[in-house]
Every structure is written in C-alpha cells, then in structure tokens.
Amino acid sequence: MKPYVYGIDIGGTSIKFGLFNRQLQLEKKWEIPTNSSNNGESIFGDIVDSIKMHTPDLSQIEGYGFGVPGPVLKNYVQMCVNLGWKNVDLQDRLRDELKNDHIVVGNDANVAALGEAFLGAAKGRKNVAMLTLGTGVGSGIVVDGRLLEGHNGSAGELGHLTIPQEQPIACNCGKKGCLETVASATGIRNIYHRLNEDFTGHSTLYDNDYVDSKAIFDAAKAGDKLAISVVDEAAYYIGYACHVLSVTTDPSVIVIGGGVSKAGEFLIEKVTNEFHRLVFQPTNDTVIVTAQLGNDAGIYGAAGLVKIRG
Questions:
Q1: Residue range(s) defining the domain that contains residue 237
Q2: In CATH, what number is assigned to the domain containing residue 53?
Q3: C-alpha 1: how far from its chain's center?
Q4: Are 244 and 162 contacting, i.e. CB atoms less than 8 angstroms apart?
Q5: Which range (25-29, 146-150, 233-237) has the least confidence?
Q6: Which residue, among 262, 260, 266, has the nearest Cα to 222 in the 3D structure?
C-alpha cells in the first residue's frame, strides 16, 4: 500500500495542495494562484507541474482527491463558472501525467464539509452541513457519513439559492438574486454599496481607499452604523440559508467556513439569532459553529475522498 495521498482544493483565486499520510495527517501544504484565463485550460498543467515539483517520486502516491467549485457527478465536473470549466473529466486530463488512475473529485463545499466532519468542527458527527463564504458561496452536505451529491451533482449548491430581493444582483451563473450575491465576500460589498446610496450619516468606512468584507466587519465590531446594517442584512441571508439546510437535510451541526467566517463569533451570533427566528422548531437544536480547519478543510476533505472512494 502506498504511503501518501494528495488533497487538492481548486478555488477561483488559488489552488491549495496538501500531502497527507494514510492516517490523514498533513505532511506539507502549499498553494499557487489560479489561472482561469482561456477557460481555465492552464489549470491542468499548473497542477501537474506543482505536484511534480514537490513530489519527486509519484509512485509513492496512493491517489489524488480534488475539490472543485461547481457541481460534480461521479467524478465528472459539470460546470465551474469561476474557472471557465464545463464538462471536465479530471481523471482523464490528469491520469497520464500523474501516472495514477485513482483520481476522485467532489464539489469543493461538499469536500470541505467532509473535512470538518472527519477532523474539524463536526468531528464524529454523521449529519453535517457546511456553508463556505468566500469569493462565492458553496455548501456541502454529509448525510449518515456520506456526501450528498444528488441526481445532477448539484445537491448543496446553496450559493445559487434564489433569495427574494427588491434589487436582485446578477450572479456569475446567469441568474439574478443568488445567495452568493449577498452572502459571499463580494456579496457583502454588494450590500454595502446598495445601503451606502441612502445612508446619510458618516461612516468610518469612508476613510478606506477600498472597502472589503473584512473592513466592513471590523467597522461593525467597532459600532459603525452603516457597517452594522450591512452585516445584519448579510446575517439574515446566511441565517435563511441555514434554515433551508435544516428543514431539508436536518444536520446536527452547520459549519460556517470560508474567508468571511474569520469574523468569528460576532458573525455566528448574528446568524444564529436569525436562524432561530426562522427555524422549524423540531430542528431547533441544530448548532451553528465556525469551521476549525479554516482554509485547510478542502484539502483534508479531498484527501478523505481518496480513502472513502478507494
């Protein structure tokens, strides 16, 4: 039996690599920028080159697990709008270069949820859901210890749940009003720009050359009224998404991950309050927590895919 497995998390901004031993202990990790030009064609070669640079002997690798930002069905990538991919067979594209047929693929949020269920905030739980709030919004669902993919590989694509709004914003998927447009890092900035149009007071955010989601959360924590109103609205949308997860899959734990989750308990408390205001009472004991593995959840879960789909 070969001693190592790879977990690889392909995101819209970066590609994260983790080399693990058979007990899923992380040996080393690194990342490279994601080059999504030319419909993401360069990504395949970039992945192979980076693996070969860090792994002189590919014969020591049992398999490769991938998390990708889009629906996946039986290892086949249906679509990744942030990468420019459509109908991609990663195993077919990489097996010869990596000299390995054991290449398994899952939706990035599903894979991150699996990582948190294996070794993170939901360790030991069999029914887990996760929302990843980063450049976009993904969600992953683990039911009875297994990933839920669905008929078309789109189970858990809550980032494209339509949220009723007066001024819905266009999403990269082609729809308007997706959760991603109001709950991701970009979505929180969207809320800020809309609310700022009618805001009459002064905000400390005006002192920034560029207002990102971190600046908004920092200002809200310091009592800035505009920032608080932005965070409160975003928390409602995230709480609403948690409510949908609770009545459709009934998880014992909902894990909030991604860059936005770095706001910590300040965000979790607001989301939990919105969730309990909306929740169907039999699912009221669902707990909302911050991810423990951070940006590493995807590589842990991807490595775990190699083991469970061995």
A1: 124-292
A2: 3.30.420.40
A3: 31
A4: no
A5: 146-150
A6: 266
8 Å CB contact between 241 and 131: yes
Angle, alpha carbons 20-23-29 (nearest 5°): 20
Are 143 and 27 in a shared domain? Answer: no
In a domain, 300, yes or no: yes
pLDDT in tens, 178-230: 999 999 999 999 999 999 999 999 999 999 999 999 999 999 999 999 999 99
Instruction: State phi, psi for 40 to the nearest 5 degrees.
Output: 70, 20
HSE at residue 57, side-chain half, CA atoms within 13 A, is 5
Residue 18 β-bridge partners: 7, 29
Task: List C-alpha distances in Å: 250 to 114, 126, 192, 279.
Answer: 16, 11, 32, 11
Give yes or no: residues 67 and 163 share one domain. Answer: no
Using DSSP bridges, classify how beta strands 103-107 and 61-68 pair: parallel, antiparallel or unpaired: parallel
106 and 128 share one domain: no
Contact present, 37 and 59 (Cβ < 8 Å): no
- The pTM of the full predicted model, rounded to 2 decimals, is 0.82
- Is 149 within 8 Å of 72 (Cβ atoms)? yes
Whether residue 130 is found in the same domain as residue 248: yes
pLDDT in tens, 17-52: 999 998 899 999 999 999 989 999 999 999 999 999
